[in-house]
Amino acid sequence: MAFLYIFFLLLSLSTATTDVASCSCGFLDRTGAIWTDAIIAYGNETDKLPSESLVTEDFQHPYEKNWNARYRAGARSSNLGHNKSTAPGWNGSAWVLNLDRPTKDHTVVGTSLRTVRRDIQYGTFEAVLGPPKPGVGGSILAMRLDYSESQTVNLNVMNADDPDDAWTSFMLYGDWRGTRSKGVNFTDFGNDTYKFGGSPWGFVPYRIDWTASKANFFIGDALARSVSPRHVSKPWPTTPSTLYFRHTSIGDMYTSEGPPPNGSHAHVGLVRAFFNSSLMTWADHDSFDKRCHLARPCLVSDISLRGSSPYGHGATREFKPPSINYKKRWPAIFVASISLAISILLLGHALFKRGPWNKTDESTRTPSQDLSTTPSMIFSEGDGLTYAAQGLGIGTPGQVTPGNSTPSRVHSETAWLENGTSAQTLFDNSRPVTRPGSSALQVPLPPFLSYDSRRSSEITVVNEKKSAKESVDQINEKKQPEVAVKEMETKPTQGANPPIAVPKQRVDYLAGLVALASVLVTLIHFALTFLPATEIPYTHTHYQSEMWALKIVTPYLLTFSWIGPFFTSSTRFLVGNYLKSGNLKNIAEKTVGRTPRLIIPCAAIAALEYFCMQVGAIKWLEYLPSVTWSTWPYTASYVTFGHFLNEIIELMYIIPNAVPQITFNYCIGVLWTIPVQLQNSWLSLLAVMVIREIKTPWKRMGYYAFCIANHWYALSWGSFFWVGLLIADLDITYKWKTWLNNRPVVYYVFITFCTLLAAGSPSIDLVSQWKPWNFNTLESGVHPHQRTGNLIRDTYDYGYPAYYQPRLTALTFSIGFHLLVELSPLVQKFFSNCLLMWLFPHILTLYLIHGLVFWSLGAVICVHLAAHGVPYWANMLVVAICTYTVIFACLPILTPVIETLGKSITTQIWQNASEKPLPRRKTLYPFGPELFKDAESNDTEVRPKGEDVERNDAETGRAL
Ligand SMILES: *[C@@H]1O[C@H](CO)[C@@H](O)[C@H](O)[C@H]1NC(C)=O
Ligand SMILES: *[C@@H]1O[C@H](CO)[C@@H](O)[C@H](O)[C@H]1NC(C)=O
Ligand SMILES: *[C@@H]1O[C@H](CO)[C@@H](O)[C@H](O)[C@H]1NC(C)=O
Ligand SMILES: *[C@@H]1O[C@H](CO)[C@@H](O)[C@H](O)[C@H]1NC(C)=O
């Protein structure tokens, strides 16, 4: 009986339909174009897929190319079903594309159909698509003409988690362009533009017209989007493609949302594709035209068409781009190799001569560089840590080693010493300044000052402003470690002297603190990139242990409170000298040098990152979220060079508590601290001048309290800088360490208080991991809201404070930690360890470069290991080891560059600004102008003599 029924059904169909195979002269569409081939299949007529035209696929993506995909798509043939559908817009049954519930491993297995033919090149493609039910969870029902990610024409029907967000996007080049302007909301389907009569939640006919000059997308018959090659920046899709229908979900929270927690299903009602084959040659087209010159083609609009056009075996093979044979350009290769060889030779030479193992080069540095061998990250310019450390600028341990010097070196030093102001610049004013000829007293001279020191270790020195006696007092008072004067007499020819042991620097530990803080900041960024669950609550974990890390380790070690010590300690390096000496010249120097010192290295490294991005170094970053489940990393190239300049200038002028735009281009948005540093440098420099004039201690302290409280209330990072200033003041002016050390009871009580502050502040964050309330949110609520003037608590901005907003816990944490480090010898010992000391000069480099390494190398390794099925913990181990090795290996190479760019240029700027220039030397020195004149007179050619000499003089004059 059933057999008979099917027989009659088939009979009735065969009478009512036309097989497309009989349309040998193609199909005429609405626009007048004729397409040669067709594939037509109706879900209400065949429960099985027509195997000659459509097949299902089985795959599992190891990763997705999408900045926001936290799940990976897969497909299984068994997920294709066939069922009667009750959804509006369709009668009878349809193909069902099922989507499984997501796995713990973040894979979502759905369904994928594709045409057997893969030679589709232009055409008109219709389908009736039914999205999953509203409210089941977001997924994507896609219809795509796809060759590769760069050559895709597709539309995505997305039901979204919230039915109000549901929309259909019409795309070129792939899936993720989050803007709604490239799609239509379900709620707009029925509006006057699209006039779609049915429900968008039922079956909706869609159409894509793809030609060489246009891609049009339709809802029903209404044009929804039209793109032409003129409007796109990338090459137009022209490659032979395959037509796909897919039901997948990747959990992109900005477009499709999802995935559906309990799975879902979507429908495909019918497929009608009319297209050209890429396998037809020009000759084939000619013969087609000749043959069909007079014949009538079938019509695309004829709904009785069924079946598929015949095709050859070649049509089922995927298109392979012909391999391009690059012509070897020998001249270019030749020139490049020569340049490369010369560069390597020069670099090798420089490395060999000036490598860190080669101690002799210490003396060949310019004095100004020596002044600050220990560069300090974002705090001081021209004025190294050791400077502050020793109070006298006698140099770092490594420096107290005079080496051999070349004649030119002696010459330059002489020139430099001849000029009083010059020496003065490089030395603090308050300090003894060498000036040959003026004799007052004999003090040991820093080695880099004393080219004479190999003859005599002592040199005449005067103090320019203060009396010589005062100088001596100062030196005695500071109890300058006995920099072994005798050592300085080492013969210059004797290279590589062992460095003289100098007692520990006084503020080494501060350097150690900052170095540790910067390492921890890189760790935070590592965690945010690769292990988001340890940093961001309510994200998916790879392992349960990440939850515990979030609750226990993160509040202490991986908290952004570690930014605080950068700020508090930077003040000390800025204002230390002025506090000691009261010389405004210090302030002037800092003011001039501050901006270039910070901005030039940032601009240079940003340009480097820009370059790396453009050559594709961070290509794999876009694949990373599907493996790490962290959507935090994101970066995009600058639009134009003008934007780049704009962003750099913004770094200098942006008012704190905003995100500079460069954060969105720079690998890991660390640069937001640069404006904070810069703006608050002016604050610190101004503040220290005021403070020094307030002589009564209680008034001074009252002023501190007033300013710190106000900055805190105004949500300004200035509070950190005021605290730094206060601590420096207490130490330098009031010598409170001595005072405290003489009173053990007070000391221990105070130390306990500091420990409580340092440990207690993060513990408050810890509490909020377990309890519903959050102290930081509450605290941010009591500040005034900038736009309305109300309490933040009463505005719509109330919530967890953004990362660029100061928090009270960060402030108290920084105070506690900074004080502990200042006062406790035990903590000092820890922070003075040699590893942190080694790292300290490199922290600016570390700070600027770590993001690029994580996001380029780290992403490549992580994505590929994950694709090979390596367990995630092992993957992380490998990524961490590789990236940190590369970062630390980069430091010694990049730091000198950054130092040159930042510090040397700054020093030069200040020198040029503040010094009287040296008397000019004639260009021809040591030869006189006669050289030219004689040459002219020897000239055999007879010329009017006077004229000649005149011109010569003029030229020499210009040269001079
Ligand atoms: C299948 O659906 C199409 C479009 O709605 C319709 O034209 C066709 O008649 C249907 N076929 C059968 C057998 O019902
Ligand atoms: C078809 O629909 C019925 C009832 O709606 C359902 O129970 C069945 O699982 C569906 N089959 C497929 C293959 O989707
Ligand atoms: C479409 O929906 C989204 C999300 O609900 C909304 O933000 C957007 O403004 C809507 N677009 C239009 C054109 O209505
Ligand atoms: C219909 O909705 C689209 C947005 O999806 C909008 O651009 C268009 O102007 C709307 N048309 C009318 C007539 O409101």
Automatic annotation (TrEMBL):
Task: List the transmembrane segments.
Answer: 330-352, 509-533, 553-575, 596-616, 667-691, 711-733, 745-764, 839-866, 872-894
Tell me which InterPro entries the record gives: ConA-like_dom_sf (IPR013320)
Q: Where is this region: Disordered?
A: 931-960
Q: Does the keyword Transmembrane apply?
A: yes
The highest taxon in the source lineage is Eukaryota
Report if keyword Endoplasmic reticulum is assigned: no
- What keywords appear on the UniProt entry? Membrane, Signal, Transmembrane, Transmembrane helix
Enumerate the SUPFAM superfamilies for this protein: Concanavalin A-like lectins/glucanases
Position of the signal peptide: 1-16
Q: What is the name attached to this protein's record?
A: GH16 domain-containing protein
Q: Which organism is it from?
A: Clohesyomyces aquaticus
Query: What taxonomic classification does the UniProt entry list for its organism?
Result: Eukaryota, Fungi, Dikarya, Ascomycota, Pezizomycotina
